């Protein structure tokens, strides 16, 4: 994605899953408190677990994946768009058609399935310049 306002940062992923969650929580709280963002996960289970952990630690985060009802996904997307929910923890199901201008961060909990998927997911951030 060729947008000068985007900054890419690579972190070594800790081995223990609890440490990964703590690292994501720390990055968000230190750099993006109260800001809109997306945490991408490869599996639906990870999306549920990460969202639960973030919410239990004081962040407004909800999961979004294909196993959830259309009604739930619509409601959660609207809450995120309005700023009621700050963080969508999602699988690739949360991708095409997402055009929220004030997304301040995109974190990948897991590797994307492909470089094309990574490109699309990371391109959700900073659309307002």
Automatic annotation (TrEMBL):
Pfam families the UniProt entry points to: Helicase_C
Compartments where located: Plastid, Chloroplast
GO terms for MF: 3'-5' DNA helicase activity; DNA binding; four-way junction helicase activity
Domain Helicase C-terminal stretches: 20-129
CDD domains: SF2_C_RecQ
GO biological process: double-strand break repair via homologous recombination
EC number: 5.6.2.4
Matching InterPro entries: Helicase_C-like, P-loop_NTPase
Keyword line: DNA-binding, Isomerase
UniProt catalytic activity: Couples ATP hydrolysis with the unwinding of duplex DNA by translocating in the 3'-5' direction
PANTHER family per record: ATP-DEPENDENT DNA HELICASE Q1, DNA HELICASE RECQ FAMILY MEMBER
Protein name: DNA 3'-5' helicase
Organism field: Guillardia theta (Cryptophyte)
Upper lineage: Eukaryota, Cryptophyceae, Pyrenomonadales, Geminigeraceae, Guillardia
């Amino acid at each position: 994605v060729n947008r000068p306002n985007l900054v890419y940062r690579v972190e070594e992923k800790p081995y223990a899953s609890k440490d990964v969650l703590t690292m994501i929580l720390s990055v968000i709280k230190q750099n993006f408190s109260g800001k809109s963002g997306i945490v991408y996960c490869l599996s639906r289970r990870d999306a549920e677990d990460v969202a639960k952990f973030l919410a239990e630690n004081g962040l407004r985060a909800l999961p979004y994946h294909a196993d959830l009802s259309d009604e739930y996904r619509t409601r959660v997307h609207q809450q995120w768009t309005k700023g009621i929910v700050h963080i969508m923890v999602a699988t690739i199901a949360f991708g095409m058609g997402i055009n929220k201008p004030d997304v301040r961060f995109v974190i990948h909990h897991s590797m994307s399935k492909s470089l094309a998927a990574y490109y699309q997911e990371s391109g959700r951030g900073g659309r307002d310049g």
